[in-house]
Hints:
This protein is of the alpha/beta class. It has nine helices and 16 strands. It is globular, with a radius of gyration of 19 Å. Residues 10-16, 36-38, 41, 78-82, 99, 102-103, 119-121, 123, 144, 148, 176, 229-230, 234 line the site of nicotinamide-adenine-dinucleotide (NAD).
Amino acid sequence: MIQKRTIGIVGAGHVGVAAAYAIFMAGLCRDLIVVDQDRRRAEGEAMDLMHAQAFARRVQVRAGSYRDLSPAQVVIVTAGAASRAGESRLALLARNLEVFRTIVRELDRHCREAVLIIASNPVDLMTHFCQRQTRRAASQVIGTGTMLDTARLRALLGAYYEVDPRSIHAYIIGEHGDSEVPLWSTAHIGGTPLEGHALFGKAFNRADMDRLFTAVRTSAYEIIARKGYTSSAIGLTIARLTAAVLNDENSVLPVSRKLVGEYGISDICLSIPSIVGFRGVHNALLPQLSPKEYEGLVRSADILKKHFSEIRESS
Length: 315
Ligand SMILES: NC(=O)c1ccc[n+]([C@@H]2O[C@H](COP(=O)([O-])OP(=O)(O)OC[C@H]3O[C@@H](n4cnc5c(N)ncnc54)[C@H](O)[C@@H]3O)[C@@H](O)[C@H]2O)c1
């Protein structure tokens, strides 16, 4: 029997809706079920998308409960508490963990087999927490991690070199956040390394690259300062990751995953290039890092571990 593809989205806010829109337009599934604590909001978003069916694919979108997620192969989690005035980051994190505790319990009860894609921030810590709470295999919990940051870097490099960003191979690894690490030493276009080469008349210029990376690292702040939130690019990032799972693509994507000794790092989730297919995230690729890149990755892991233990102490 052909199994109908079902995708669940928990959290019908800006990010959840952008992901739903991208999934809907790409026709990735037959059933798309949106769960939100604000049921009417989820209903409104589902109705709004359904009215565009004549211009897209036959994807049935509806608001539902956790119970309705039982046939889902993939469930995307974008739910999160928003900051209260005067609330510290750690206090917000502690509240978000409580939200996640309930969500993971419900997902374990109703869709144990599904691969979970976590987008809520801080995404590495949320993915790590989810890994610890859930009864499913570690490979079935994937954080969007630095996929978005990597896409942003490729877009900027594409504009810089005037090349299709899809033809640019350059990764950002580590935390999805301030301590993330750009891998210049392995970045290439068409097999030609960026470092030490002139491409299309442009020599590799460290100052220009630093400027591009700073623009990537600060882009969420810049967008939020202007429109209040980020949604479009993360929505497409989630759809791309979902497609890699559902189509069993075995694509190489920089996603947040549990490290078990890679680069000497264990027991924390962060991003390194990894194979993503139907069973979730498996084999990690371990590109050779320069000493500075390696140092940056270890620092990133230490920062995440410190935050995780602080949250646990404060909750
Ligand atoms: N990973 C990334 O690259 C990335 C990029 C952008 C945003 N984000 C993160 O995505 C998350 C969502 O952002 P947003 O702008 O959509 O926020 P939002 O406030 O617009 O939406 C959050 C939604 O979650 C729902 N929700 C809260 N608690 C819930 C619960 N217990 N069960 C079900 N639904 C619940 C709310 O009702 C709301 O609809 C945030 O944590 C944000 O930081 C991540």
